[in-house]
Model the fold of this input.
Amino acid sequence: MTIYKHLIRMGTNSEKKYCRDFQNQYDAIVINANILAHTTSSMSSFLGCELSKDFLIDPQTYAFQSYGNLLQSSKSEKTSTNVKKSISSMLTSYGEKIKNIIEVEKRSILYNDFLGKSGEIFLHELSENVINFQLNTIQNQSLENSEYGEYIQYELSSNTQTVNLKPFALIPPYFYMTENTVDNWIPHNTKAIKYCKEKFQGESIYAQIVINKEILLNNLILDKIVNEYSLTNADGYFIWIDGFDEKNIGQTYLNNFIYLLKNLNKNNKPIYQIYGSYFSIMLTKSYLSGTCHGMEYGEDREVFPVGGGIPVSKFYMPDLHKRLLYRDALKFLLAKGYLINKGTYFSNVCNCKTCKQVINNNPEIDFSAFGDFNSTTFKRKAGNKEYSVTMDYPTTEAKDLCLKHYLYNKTKEYEYVSSNSWQDLIQQLKEAHTNSCKILGDDVDYLLTWANVIQKITLNL
Ligand SMILES: [Zn+2]
Done:
């Protein structure tokens, strides 16, 4: 079985470029079913032909648990009553019944939709549709419509396996569980897995377990989850903890997260954290097979996000394993004297390809390329008064540089973790903390938290 240590998530079509340019730096790619459903043709030729990478399709069935979040938001910021186009395309593949609930009955899916005989039939149909969508969409589309059709046909028949049209694992429908709802949803979640295991024999069927953070504080529920999911015989697990920002939560959560992984690991199946930071990368030395991040922003994610906010430039600090606001990064580098010349920058901050291009004879000025912005002024009305607001948006070039620097550093992190010992990792965290806490204060406290949690792991190994 192939293990995919370094997964990246492609969130939008505009990120294709980075997935292509960096394709030698990660192991597999994850995309959401709604993007595939909405742009089937271009996404199929991208994944199936242009990019020869193993991939995974997240079926996103949890989204149906919140009808309000499926709706388009219009420009006036009032929510319309139309379901987002990409969700609607996905629903078409998932079957009449679910489409009817969302688009005709206009409501969230509820756990009791799956109760009783008719509920069971619904769960089975949904499971088949969801798996078939992942299994067949790219293959069918690539063969039928793409300019590569004949080539793919030839490759498939010659059995050389140079084309990659099937996800490396298939995910049955899954639903989000909180402390209050776990008893309602766990039976449906596990039944869907068992059904898919039976119906699609020979395929790799992975469970996606999506829970809220509070569950981590309740060992009884954690044990229940481990027991129930172990009984499904799933071939592997994807874990998603709602809004689990590993840099912003205390030791209790991190220790209990490890407790969950440790118990789930008794099944000897791969476990992936689907939104993870450097902390999860460190866990790939044991406990985790791999972890996934997005294009700068996907190191944690809320199940039902609360809106975006305005984009700001952030610079990933390699030693701190964290993105800092550009101005904070600049202050830190100036205070440390790292911008004195390119030598001090390359040896103390970063010597990735992007930094080597950007930082030259005048690092203080050169570094500003990561923080370039355009200002836009517009008018706002409050009552009968009108006033103007100016907002700064990072330039396309600055965003591009920050992202490339981030992607180079992520790759380095995976490499660093696999080629160093636990003690080396702890040492690095402690040194990074000592080196930065005088300037950044409690904002870098997580480095010591991580060091303590990792130290505890090594005592129990
Ligand atoms: Zn760099």
Q: What stands out?
A: The chain has two domains: 6-293, 315-460. The CA atoms of residues 91 and 270 lie 29 Å apart. The mean pLDDT is 93. The pocket of zinc ion is lined by residues 350, 352, 354-355, 405, 408 (CB under 6 Å).
